[in-house]
């Protein structure tokens, strides 16, 4: 899948033709990050970053006690990617990807939703045991060396 920031300075292809999972998050942090009613994330196996000289990184603590690394375009400020150390998946912000099927999205943190959740959608009031990526789960849960090689592979 093709992804890019608003100004086009950062563009990349996802490692799969469709995400392992697609989330619409209604938590306060995602609402603030997007300046909207919710945030969207497409989950993919960890892959090489696009041109790192074009990205900046903001870090923040999560409700579960981890640190979230949030990558954005230095030129236009578009948030593009999120990652958490110790996880072999990356969250690509849904709005920067062409061709996502939003009917498959899972709604999370619905207890703080500002808009109605579509009837029949898979949803969770908080962050629950919804992160099951099928057959890829065992591989994805294995820790990796996040220091990387300095070649743009998640050098934190």
TrEMBL record:
It comes from the Eukaryota. Pfam families: GFA. Residues 1-125 form the CENP-V/GFA domain. PROSITE patterns: CENP_V_GFA. Keywords: Lyase, Metal-binding, Zinc. SUPFAM superfamilies: Mss4-like. Belongs to the Gfa family. This is Glutathione-dependent formaldehyde-activating. It comes from Coniochaeta ligniaria NRRL 30616.
